[in-house]
Amino acid sequence: LTISSMEKTKVLVTGVAGLIGSHMAEYLVSKGYEVSGIDNLSGGCQENIPQGVTFYCNDLSNKKEVKRVFKLVKPDYVYHFAAYAAEGLSPFIRNFNYSNNLISSVNIINECIKNEVKKIIFTSSMAVYGEGKPPFKETDIPHPIDPYGISKYAVELDLECAKSQFGLDYTIVRPHNVIGIRQNI
What we know:
Blueprint (H helix, E strand, L loop, with lengths): L9 E5 L4 H12 L3 E6 L14 E4 L5 H11 L3 E4 L13 H21 L4 E5 L23 H20 L3 E4 L12
Parallel strand pairs: 1-2, 1-4, 2-3, 4-5, 5-6
Helix pairs in contact: 2-3, 3-4
């Protein structure tokens, strides 16, 4: 990303009150970007949101609210970190898992397409690989074994489809066992 001398680059961070989202938002603010964040505060804390971030307390499963935030922010880039990370619990909360991790992501992807976002960066999960023997490689074939991994992999496939159909540029990262300050344990 580069900052134009005429107008700041606008970035939207989902899950901005969580561990990864708050740290990325802090970094982007420090680099001079105009940063907005959205979070429903179900896993993050409002005090984690860095100074300089315009905050919207909304649930990404609410399509109308997601659309409203995109209209207000007009982001150039989206970092999509919001998720309900409950891998072992996901078989017992299937509907909740898919609403929070798949439908919410689809709402973000749809608005990225409609608003001609330059790029979405999606935080997936190592759970897309399922059981396997480390070390894992990006060339390994995904084979999720629970609803959490399935939802993350479905979003990856949807991004691939959005790229081929609408030209939406994306990057996928698959972190594993992330831990640090600002984490809700």
